[in-house]
Amino acid sequence: MTTTVETTRESDGSIQGRSPRQIAWMRFKRNKVGMSAAAVSIALLSLSLFAPIVCKILGIDPNTLNLEVLDRSGIPDLPNGGISLDHPLGLIPGTGRDLLAQLLYGSRISFMVAILTTFTSLTIGLFVGIIGGYFRGRVDSTLGRFTDFILAFPAFFMIVALSEPMVKRIEGAGIAQGNSARVLFLVFFLSFFGWPGFSRLIRSQILSLRERDFVTAAEAMGAKRSRVILKELLPNVWAPVIVVVSLSLPGYLAAEAVFSFLGLGVQPPASTWGILLSNASRYVTVMPSFFLITAGSLVLVVLAFNLVGDALRDALDPRADR
Fold first, then answer.
1. Is 19 contained in some domain?
2. Which helix (H) or strand (E) holds 193?
3. For residues 257 and 277, is the Cβ–Cβ distance under 8 A?
4. Measured CA distances, 264 to 45, 113, 123 (Å)
5. Do you find a cis peptide bond into 20, omega within 30 degrees of 0?
6. What is the mean pLDDT of the chain?
7. What is the CATH number of the domain that holds 174?
8. Quick one: which of 139, 146, 219, 257 is 20 to 30 A from 38 by CA?
9. What's the whole-number mean pLDDT along residues 55-81?
10. Is residue 25 a part of any domain in this protein?
11. Mind telling me which residue stretches traverse the membrane in this protein (predicted)?
12. CB atoms < 10 A from the CB of 9, how many?
């Protein structure tokens, strides 16, 4: 296996070599935008993971109703939409629930759907791409035609059309009930329509890697095909996998918000960012802060993850100028 190794001269005149991993980390650290986006992404994931603890520290609760401060139209009869030390982001119209607590708890479901979908779709695409690119011939042709068949479907309209009947089928089979069935439906169908594009990328990488000297040497030494795939090919495609993960996660996060906004995802009384955004759209004229905070939170998360993905792509590219 050929790797790029950079050297630096230390103060004592000695030359120290750096591995590709160290080189990528040095490039990533020099990217201030990427480092800032990574810090924001880690902070948001931590807040989502430890939402109950954060809410307890701040003294807020996602289920507490504050109906006494609402006027007849359901708008908080407080300055700035109820934003105060007790409610840092204000109150939700109609129910009087704390907006920050709802965002934190809602992000847990949104992140769960995005993470499960990203892991499932990329795992399927990774192994389908590796198998097709390595074996080629009839195996590659069969997998390629099946991939083309899936790509021919309009994924968005298929999910919209199959949402209700498939959720009822899942509930009828006793696999899951209520919102759990809807989460399972979203993860399954987003993964089903999400892996073909990634498998094409991995297949092109494997077609190039299988002609390298280290693969030829492993085959000449009598290594089994499974060993060549797991020990020689798989470790050399982690760079595009990491980049695609960082770019797919915000995409699926936004997709979950869109389907929940359309009423096809998780339903109340559970909370996701899509549900909050759907509620905020009803009060956009009378209480714009509710809509701006909810939409801004989603934009911030998606932007942060996308910037991390761009920074990782630059850091892992050996031909990058920076």
1. no
2. helix 179-209
3. yes
4. 25, 14, 25
5. no
6. 84
7. 1.10.3720.10
8. 257
9. 82
10. no
11. 36-60, 109-134, 146-163, 183-202, 233-252, 289-308
12. 9
Task: Count the domains in the chain.
Answer: 1
pLDDT bracket for residue 3 (50, 70, 90): very low
Query: What gap in Å lies between CA 41 and CA 19, rounded to an integer?
Result: 26
The length of the chain is 322
Structure token pair of residue 316: 């892992």
Q: Find the mean pLDDT for residues 262-275.
A: 82
Does 273 score more than 50 pLDDT?
Answer: yes
Specify burial of residue 146 (Cβ count, 10 A radius: 0-12, 13-18, 19+).
middle
Sequence-distant (≥ 6) Cβ neighbours of residue 35 within 8 angstroms: 28, 29, 311
**Confidence category of residue 62, pLDDT binned at 50, 70, 90:** confident
Non-local CB neighbours of 78 within 8 Å, separated by 6+ positions: 69, 84, 91
Helix (H, G, I), strand (E, B) or coil at 173: coil
* Domain of 271, in residue numbers: 39-316
State pLDDT tens for residues 87-144: 888 888 888 888 899 999 988 888 899 999 999 999 999 999 999 888 888 888 999 8
